[in-house]
Write a structure and sequence with these properties.
By secondary structure, the protein is an alpha/beta fold. The protein folds into five domains: about 160 residues, no CATH class; about 30 residues; about 80 residues, Threonyl-tRNA Synthetase, Chain A, domain 2 (2-Layer Sandwich), CATH 3.30.980; about 280 residues, 3-Layer(aba) Sandwich (Rossmann fold); about 90 residues, Winged helix-like DNA-binding domain superfamily/Winged helix DNA-binding domain (Arc Repressor Mutant, subunit A). The protein contains 25 helices and 18 strands. The strands form four sheets. A nine-stranded mixed β-sheet has the order 9-8-17-16-15-10-14-13-11. Helix 15 packs parallel to helix 18.
């Protein structure tokens, strides 16, 4: 905090220097102690005499305007220390910062030598004058040019043998044009499908569902109801009933043809790119090859619910409409239009107020409207974002079940090109709602007991299992209650990930939970190192390079599956573990998105001591089922509304400041069991996905003093060679590479420590490898066997 405070003080003193330096200059040049403590002298600097003196030292006598770079470094130092980052990263920041400060101060003194204000400061000016006297002005100009070229080559390492600059420019321009055309076509398609066509009431119509590329697109209003004056079911008094439509099968074939055409164009473009870059002639790596015969669960495993659809009572709708209009008229509020959009749980009545009516007056009548309709869960949206209407959500007397089967079989889900598509349910307009967990990037779920939280988590997990291959995603499941997620135990060799020494694939014990979350932090750091070596910014770029054989597995590179961490009852963990669990969770939430690790945290107690500021700040996506009070609603959503839900899967999803009301997709326990059994009956990987080993600070060290030569494992030599080759003393690496159990791999590691091949355990870090190369190892092994 001291570094941050000092950087802020220096910033404003330097900023003031531009306006006050002429007034303070002569005084600051005198004895500094006299200037600071003699009341006769006054400063014009914004921050007084100390600010004037500080600016004079750094701006005039120092490096000129590059002093602001020093302010940045000081602020960055404070932030890194505050977030407990490594000193190594801090040293890199200061090393490069110091070089650039000196370099640019000399450059500014040389380039702007003709003005009164010395931009580079006395230090830059002195170095510039010395260089000019040695190599002259022309020589210094050439020095700047060549040093700049050297920095460009060193930092960016351009490959001049792949393509000419003109060819690269042509490819980039063509990619830009194709991307713009794709966006324009998508925008046009979205605009076209958002309009309703006028059809008779007796005609059985359906609506085309468009695939959402990211969650925010799903918040667009599904239909512009103001354009539906002639829609079916209109009454003579102008009241319109909008019945959401189903999929339009007649347009399905056309959409598929367009999709196939796009895939062909994309494939030919990728082929051309590979031919031009000449990266490799090898066949692309296929992560699904080990389980090439794996089949996704069939939709028939999910139940069909008879009341999964839209049914409405015209008399009920007209009665509620009249009650709403009458209540508003009682308070002298006139409206121009009113229409209803029927959903599975609630009906949205949209009204257009007469000119001059204050929206706040309608909002304040929420309880009065609820009383007149004799209904619970009335929610007024005043106004509806992006529309000039006020919405009144009224629960239906007869609710429809939104079965997960209807969501999974929808074209929107089947054709979704998302990294982690999750089927959440249907909107008020009965439209399928699909979101991408990878774009969220983490999800916070809260709600009172029995309101649908566990069903929602099962629906999310089921949608991932229905869409992704076991090689593409791994699930780390934490269930303190021990009964909610145990049903997924059977698919441990397909989709689950956990610590190598865990007895059960579903983590339930608090100590194991702490170790698991810290192990995920190690996995996150390892993945960032791989991204750094592979020169990729995120997991998608890294995996693309790996599948194209541009990254060598012999150098430690591997295909990275997405990892989804699910915690079913977070409140229990906070009560028992506190900061031990909150801090690593916060670190994962801050940093893990780019490397494909995503979190889903659920709790039935959305209080501020459970959902802390650290958690909320890094979970922009929040899913709220019915809660008991407005305080709980504000805790989870930062606004009211969750306390007005009607329960049984009725929920509010908030992403990026936008909110949508959904009816959660329903999947029953027997359906989950059938889905899990279908996956478990298929061939899985030889071992589950093991997370990096993590040893807590309080765990006892093993006694290795009693190990003898007769105790050596038959794989001791091979394991020692593996450790020396990879230069990584990790038990989990022995387990994975040699297909051994964790206990046996741990014994081999203890034996290697006893015989001086690796050092002692260092907590979460790999052991130090004491043998430098394979030749030395072979000599060492011979000495061991002769002893």
């Amino acid at each position: 905090m001291l570094a941050i405070s000092l950087s802020v003080f220096m910033f404003f003193s330097f900023l003031s220097y531009f306006f006050t330096w002429k007034d303070d200059f002569n005084q600051v040049r005198m004895d500094w102690l006299t200037y600071l403590f003699d009341p006769v002298y006054q400063a014009e600097n914004f921050l007084g005499k100390f600010g004037a003196l500080l600016a004079h030292i750094f701006m005039f006598r120092g490096v000129g305007i590059m002093a602001f770079a020093l302010v940045y470094l000081l602020f960055k130092t404070g932030m890194l220390l505050l977030l407990a980052n490594s000193w190594k990263k801090l040293w890199v920041e200061w090393r490069w910062g110091a070089f650039l400060i000196i370099y640019l101060s000399v450059f500014f003194s040389f380039a702007f030598s003709g003005i009164d204000f010395n931009i580079g400061g006395n230090l830059g000016l002195g170095i510039k004058n010395s260089l000019v006297s040695l190599i002259g002005g022309v020589g210094l100009t050439l020095l700047f040019i060549f040093s700049l070229l050297f920095l460009v080559v060193w930092l960016f390492n351009p490959d001049f043998n792949e393509l000419s600059f003109r060819d690269k420019l042509r490819i980039q321009w063509s990619d830009l044009v194709s991307g713009f055309s794709s966006k324009k076509t998508k925008k046009k398609s979205s605009t076209t499908t958002s309009k309703r066509e006028e059809k008779p009431a007796e005609e059985n119509t359906s609506q085309e569902e468009t695939v959402s590329a990211e969650p925010s697109m799903a918040f667009d209003q599904p239909k512009n109801n103001q354009e539906n004056d002639n829609k079916d079911a209109s009454d003579t008094d102008g009241f319109k009933i909008v019945v959401p439509e189903e999929d339009e099968e007649s347009k399905l074939e056309q959409s598929r043809l367009k999709t196939e055409e796009f895939k062909n164009l994309q494939a030919s473009s990728e082929k051309l790119s590979v031919e031009q870059e000449n990266v490799s002639h090898l066949e692309p790596y296929d992560p699904t090859k080990d389980l090439s015969h794996y089949e996704h669960p069939p939709i028939d495993l999910l139940n069909v619910y008879s009341n999964d659809g839209i049914e409405f009572d015209r008399e009920e709708l007209n009665e509620k409409k009249d009650q709403i209009v009458q209540t508003l008229q009682n308070y002298k509020i006139e409206i121009k239009k009113i229409w209803a959009t029927i959903g599975p749980t609630v009906t949205l009545y949209e009204i257009v107020p007469a000119p001059g009516v204050k929206i706040s007056k309608i909002k304040n009548l929420e309880d009065d409207i609820a009383l007149s309709l004799a209904a619970l869960g009335i929610r007024i949206i005043a106004p509806i974002p992006g529309k000039g209407t006020v919405g009144i959500e009224v629960p239906n007397k007869k609710r429809q079940i939104v079965g997960l089967r209807s969501i999974i079989k929808s074209r929107k889900f089947q054709e979704a090109k998302m990294d982690l598509p999750i089927a959440l349910g249907k909107t008020i307009a009965n439209e399928v709602f699909i979101a991408d967990l990878a774009k969220m990037p983490h999800l916070l779920v809260a709600g009172a007991t029995g309101q649908g939280k566990s069903v929602g988590i099962n629906a999310i997990l089921a949608s991932i299992l229905y869409k992704k291959h076991p090689s593409q995603v791994k699930l780390v499941l934490i269930d303190p209650k021990k009964v909610e997620l145990s049903i997924y135990t059977e698919i441990e060799n397909h989709f689950l990930g956990y610590l190598p020494d865990s007895e059960e694939p579903i983590i339930t014990e608090t100590k194991k939970v702490i170790n698991t979350v810290n192990s995920l932090c190690i996995e996150m750091d390892d993945r960032y190192n791989l991204l750094k070596k592979g020169r990729a910014r995120n997991i998608k770029e890294y995996n693309e390079k790996f599948t194209k054989r541009q990254l060598n597995p012999e150098k430690g590179h591997r295909f990275l599956p997405f990892i989804v961490l699910v915690i079913d009852e977070f409140a229990d963990l906070i009560m028992t573990a506190g900061k031990e669990i909150e801090l690593p969770i916060g670190r994962l939430a801050q940093l893990a998105r780019a490397v494909g690790i995503h979190l889903i945290i659920a709790t039935q107690r959305p209080s501020v001591n459970i959902i802390t500021g650290l958690i909320k700040a890094n979970f922009p996506a929040r899913l709220a089922f019915k809660v008991t009070s407005k305080v709980d609603s504000r805790t989870i959503l930062d606004t009211g509304g969750a306390d007005q839900l009607v329960g049984q899967g009725d929920m509010l999803l908030s992403v990026g400041g936008k909110m949508v009301r959904l009816q959660c997709a329903f999947i029953d326990t027997p359906e989950v069991e059938k889905m899990v059994d279908y996956i478990a009956d298929q061939q899985g990987f030889p071992t589950p996905f093991f997370l990096p080993e993590y040893i807590g600070d309080d765990e006892e060290e093993k006694d290795i003093t009693e190990i003898t030569l007769e105790d050596l494992d038959e794989y001791f030599d091979d394991a020692a060679r593996l450790i020396v080759q990879t230069n990584r003393g990790s038990t989990s690496s022995i387990q994975r590479k040699m297909k051994l159990g964790y206990n046996r791999a741990g014994r081999i590691m203890d034996q290697m420590e006893h015989f001086g091949i690796v050092g002692p355990a260092r907590g979460s870090k790999p052991r130090e490898v004491l043998i430098s190369d394979e030749m030395e190892l072979e000599r060492h092994l011979e000495r061991i066997k002769k002893s």
